[in-house]
Write a structure and sequence with these properties.
Elements (H helix, E strand, L loop, with lengths): L13 H8 L2 E3 L4 E3 L29 H25 L6 H17 L2 H26 L6 H58 L2 H19 L24 H10 L10 E2 L4 E2 L5 E7 L6 H5 L2 H8 L6 E5 L5 E7 L25 E6 L4 E4 L6 E4 L6 H13 L5 E6 L15 E3 L4 H26 L6 H6 L6 E6 L1 H6 L3 H18 L4 E7 L9 H4 L4 E4 L5 H8 L20 E6 L6 E5 L4 H18 L19 H12 L3 E3 H9 L13 H18 L8 E3 L5 E6 L8
Parallel strand pairs: 10-14, 10-15, 11-12, 11-13, 13-14
Antiparallel strand pairs: 1-2, 3-5, 4-5, 5-7, 6-7, 8-9, 8-17, 15-16, 16-17, 18-20, 19-20
Helix pairs in contact: 3-5, 3-6, 4-5, 5-6, 7-9, 11-14, 11-18, 18-19
Length: about 725
């Protein structure tokens, strides 16, 4: 006899579980209980696998999050009250809404029965007129008897019709009064109930009447909320600048009003329109309709600002990682108008220019750092825009790096570079073109050849932090020329050509050798910085400019029309500019760190201490001397002489021949023999070495003719620095 299983396979079986729990196995020494097999637990399944549950960021529950939300709530409350006051004078005001509600309620109570009464009146009037006409016809005495009988019958029928019409009118009037009474009761009953309830609850007729009036006004305003044209007052109709909210609908409406979207086009949102963590801005990422270029949206920033009711500086559109993608940020207030926070260099110790330099803060509050290795920069903007403060971020960071050599020139003969006089290798604050020529000549004929030779010795192509740590010759150098146009404007044609040639050579070839070239101008134009040089400057920072063309002179052609226009920066936004920190970087609105004169002096003092400890201070100028470029030191001439041979070594004769081109006293005198010249020039060279405290070894080296004689090796010279 077969048995049938009546327990489902998936149901628990207590007997089987007990049997397994008490089972044992033979292991050779006896029976032992079996151990339970541990099965890896299944991974937890997300409660929201589709990802449709709204995400609540953790910061919302933090103190900073609640503080930010509270600040936004306060701002929205103030803006909401102002909007309420403004709307009271129009058809969306509460008084107008109450009046419309009262009129509509009255019309509802009266109903449409008035048309029935008018129709009944019209029928009764016609019947009365027919009866009177029949009676007048019957009243004539000279009418034959049979015709008079007919007229009498017509008069009787008209009388009956008139009576029926009057009865119908009375019936319609009675029905209308009943319906109107019912509707009036429907309106009055809640009012009476509210009045009675308020009196009983508040214990006074006055208080109850006030509550009833308020409730009645609210209901009437609700009934009259929609205008006769069918329009309603909604938050979406309020511009963002007036305290409205940025939503999906208002975002699409703004881009339509700006001419970016057509009526049937919408943006594809990749993230929700949401407030930032600090509650200061709205951010959203979206894709434009298929086939629409990014530049169309970027160039419509003025229209977007107008549609949203905000300043153009509050709208920032960034290119996404693909064409047609936009990262939009709309600030709730004009950015960068408050007092700047203290710069990070105030508390910084020793800086390393091989690492990124803090330049400023973006609209998102992010610290912006720029790498100046193998970079060059152009700073521009109208006077007072904060150009000098922006450049100071680089110069002060370089000053705090004891190994970095500074070559500075100020064409406007101002005082911005005066604090750097004590630590700069060469500096000109008088705006002298000849002094600038000396600086550029030294950099090109001394710095650049020495760096090339050092890289050749190390078998490297570019300067790096590791090489600079091994070889001081490869430490970074910064060349800064302020107001290039002022220098070339007062220079003769030949000198101007030579300045342009040297500067272009240094900018183009100095990057890989560790020479960072910077230029600044307060009147951006094609003449302020040569085009051949400007195109080589990779880092661009455009402060406030007078025209879009001036902005394009700094950032590059076409950026102003694409929405990156420094002319839109407000005068109240000092130190703010559009920074493009590299060849592949997108422009971004950045506020540079600001250091007051006292803070600059403080940082320069710390830089002087660091350089004194490191032994990298240049020779100090005599007290009271005017700011003029320091003359090249003997060591610089020795390096140039050895580098010029191309062998890495130079005999004393070759060195003296080079010095003769620098100082006439090293040239042979008339009637002086070769031995006398070498003796006299050798003594002068020894005295110069002693005066500068240099101890340079003079081993025997191979001369150009293969003969060995005393001389200098390039490897020995940097050690004497």
């Amino acid at each position: 006899m077969s048995t049938h299983e009546t327990t489902p396979a998936g149901a628990p079986d207590p007997e089987w579980d007990a049997l397994i729990a008490n089972a044992s196995v033979w292991d050779g020494d006896g029976f032992r209980p079996t151990t339970a097999v541990v099965v890896n637990p299944l991974p937890e399944v997300s409660a929201d696998p589709a990802g449709i549950t709204p995400l609540t960021p953790a910061w919302v529950k933090s103190g900073a999050g609640w503080k930010g939300r509270g600040r936004v709530a306060r701002v929205n409350s103030v803006h909401g009250f102002r909007r309420w006051v403004r709307r009271q004078g129009g058809e969306h005001g509460h008084a107008a809404q109450v009046w419309r509600g009262l009129a509509r309620t009255t019309r509802w109570v009266k109903g449409v029965e008035g048309a029935d009464i008018d129709r009944a009146k019209h029928e009764a009037r016609r019947a009365q007129e027919a009866y009177r006409a029949a009676r007048r016809a019957h009243a004539h005495k000279l009418i034959p008897g049979d015709k008079k009988t007919k007229l009498a019958k017509v008069m009787d029928d008209a009388s009956k019709d008139s009576a029926a019409a009057m009865a119908a009118l009375a019936k319609v009037r009675k029905a209308t009064r009943a319906r109107r009474a019912w509707r009036a009761s429907a309106v009055a009953a809640p009012l009476v109930a509210a009045e009675v309830g308020s009196v009983l609850a508040l214990g006074g007729i006055t208080n109850g009447s006030l509550v009833t009036c308020a409730a009645t006004s609210f209901v009437l305003a609700l009934i009259g909320r929609r205008t006769d044209a069918g329009e309603t007052w909604t938050s979406d109709s309020v511009a963002l600048g007036d305290g409205g909210k940025l939503t999906d609908e208002t975002l699409n409406a703004a881009y339509r009003d700006a001419g970016v979207l057509k009526d049937d086009q919408v943006l594809k949102l990749l993230s929700p329109v949401a407030l930032t963590r600090d509650g200061d801005a709205y951010e959203v990422v979206f894709d434009l309709p298929s086939g629409m270029p990014t530049d169309k949206a970027l160039s419509a920033v003025k229209g977007l600002a107008s549609a949203m009711g905000v300043s153009i500086t509050q709208v920032h559109q960034g290119r996404g990682e693909r064409e047609g993608r936009i990262h939009l940020r709309v600030n709730l207030r004009i950015p960068f108008t408050g007092k700047p926070s203290p710069g990070p260099l105030l508390t910084a110790g020793r800086m390393d220019l091989f690492k990124p330099v803090p330049m400023g803060v973006s609209m998102r509050g992010k610290s912006i750092e720029t790498d100046w290795v193998e970079r060059s920069g152009l700073f521009g903007g109208e006077p007072g825009a904060g150009k000098s403060a922006a450049v100071n971020n680089v110069l002060l960071a370089a000053a705090l790096d004891p190994s970095t050599r500074l070559y500075l020139a100020d064409g406007k003969a101002g005082f911005d570079l005066v604090p750097f006089e004590g630590i700069a290798e060469m500096i000109d604050t008088a705006g002298d073109p000849e002094a600038l020529l000396s600086i550029l000549t030294h950099v090109w004929e001394v710095e650049v050849p020495a760096r090339r030779a050092a890289l050749r010795e190390h078998g490297a192509r570019k300067v790096s932090a590791e090489l600079a740590a091994k070889d001081p010759r490869l430490a970074l150098a910064v060349l800064f020329v302020d107001e290039w146009a002022s220098y070339v404007a007062g220079a003769p044609a030949k000198l101007r050509e030579e300045l342009n040639r040297l500067f272009q050579l240094i900018v183009s070839q100095g990057r890989a050798l560790g020479v960072a070239s910077l230029a600044a101008t307060q009147k951006p134009s094609s003449d302020s910085v040569p085009t051949s040089v400007r195109d080589l400057l990779s880092v661009r920072w455009a402060m406030r400019c007078m025209t879009p063309e001036a902005s394009d002179t700094i950032l590059g052609k076409g950026y102003a029309s694409a929405g990156q226009n420094a002319q839109t920066i407000l005068k109240t936004q000092r130190g703010v500019g559009i920074l493009m920190s590299g060849e592949s970087a997108e422009p971004e609105l950045v506020r540079g760190h600001y250091y007051s004169d006292a803070e600059v002096e403080q940082i320069i003092g710390r830089a002087t201490e660091l350089r004194t400890e490191a032994g990298t201070m240049p020779g100090m100028a005599p007290l009271g001397a005017t700011a003029a470029p320091a003359a090249p030191r003997l060591l610089d001439h020795l390096i140039a002489a050895v580098t010029a041979t191309g062998r890495g070594v130079a005999t004393k004769g070759e060195v003296l021949a080079h010095l003769a081109g620098v100082d006439p006293q090293y040239a042979p005198e008339d009637g002086e023999s070769e031995a006398q010249f070498r003796s006299r020039a050798g003594k002068l060279l020894a005295e110069w070495l002693d005066a500068e405290g240099l101890e340079v070894p003079t081993p025997k080296v191979d001369g150009p003719d293969g003969k060995r004689s005393l001389g200098y090796r390039l490897d020995d010279l940097p050690d004497a620095r």
